């Protein structure tokens, strides 16, 4: 029954989608699997980004749970950026339905993880439930931090974000274990710059971490085609830490990011542990 319900939702997502503005319509991603967004009737408060042809994806698909800027409940708010990630063979679940109003909480991100790990129909039949990341922009990054005790989460992506004050940093950041943490900040003009830098420096020894600053401010490039330079950085990040893709690694371990204008710091990247990728699912 669940499989048929999900199939109907995929059709609805493709044919009955809410009207999008021009920026939201542009991108299907630069990866080998052009992406789209869909919704699931049994999970209406979230928007799911997947390859258009899931069957064409080689192997399993890691899962990324995303928190929107301003903790907005509009799951299309960073659509270009999230489609870019999905186009490289990921399932991305944004908190909030398409064009939904209101605000989210960190619980919505946990709900995304729970849904991904229990659902076996539709695209989730190919989900790698051992390879889950959380990330978010601004307020959404704070929501991602709140998953720090979840053993299912392998990496935390902090995009133009940081704990709101030193108390938040002391409560969360030194207590992160068994996860990598990557920061993508907008330089000194980013209102979250000082927060993010403070958090990066507060990470305990042994946590694989990377900190990149691109001088574009707090708004970054999420609305650009394919998410712009932040979209490229994000897909490379998830390809490396959740798929073990070594072709993406040098952007972080070498000077690839610097060549594209990022100022970089990094710690303990040699301690990264890559999630198991599982067997390539058979088509039936």
TrEMBL record:
<feature type="signal peptide">
    <location>
        <begin position="1"/>
        <end position="16"/>
    </location>
</feature>
<keyword id="KW-0732">Signal</keyword>
<protein>
    <recommendedName>
        <fullName>Alpha/beta-hydrolase</fullName>
    </recommendedName>
</protein>
<dbReference type="InterPro" id="IPR029058">
    <property type="entry name" value="AB_hydrolase_fold"/>
</dbReference>
């Amino acid at each position: 029954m669940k499989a048929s319900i999900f199939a109907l939702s995929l059709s609805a997502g493709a044919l009955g989608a809410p009207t999008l503005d021009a920026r939201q319509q542009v991108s299907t991603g630069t990866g080998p699997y052009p992406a789209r967004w869909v919704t699931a009737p049994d999970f209406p408060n979230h928007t799911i980004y997947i390859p258009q042809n899931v069957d064409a994806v080689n192997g399993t698909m890691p899962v990324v749970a995303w928190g929107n800027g301003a903790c907005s409940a509009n799951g299309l708010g960073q659509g270009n950026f999230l489609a870019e990630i999905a186009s490289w063979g990921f399932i991305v679940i944004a908190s909030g339905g398409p064009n939904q109003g209101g605000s989210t909480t960190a619980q919505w991100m946990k709900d995304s993880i729970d849904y991904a790990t229990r659902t076996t129909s539709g695209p989730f039949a190919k989900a790698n439930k051992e390879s889950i990341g959380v990330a978010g922009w601004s307020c959404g990054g704070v929501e991602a931090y709140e998953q720090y005790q979840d053993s299912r989460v392998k990496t935390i992506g902090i995009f133009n974000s940081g704990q709101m004050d030193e108390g938040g940093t002391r409560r969360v950041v030194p207590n992160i274990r068994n996860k990598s943490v990557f920061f993508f900040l907008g330089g000194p003009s980013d209102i979250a710059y000082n927060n993010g830098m403070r958090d990066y420096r507060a990470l305990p020894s042994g946590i694989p971490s990377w900190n990149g600053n691109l001088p574009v401010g707090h708004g970054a490039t999420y609305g650009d085609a394919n998410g712009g330079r932040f979209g490229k950085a994000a897909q490379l990040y998830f390809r490396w830490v959740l798929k073990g893709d070594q072709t993406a690694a040098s952007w972080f371990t070498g000077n690839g990011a610097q060549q594209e204008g990022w100022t970089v710091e990094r710690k303990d990247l040699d301690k990264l542990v890559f999630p198991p990728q599982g067997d390539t699912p058979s088509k039936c």
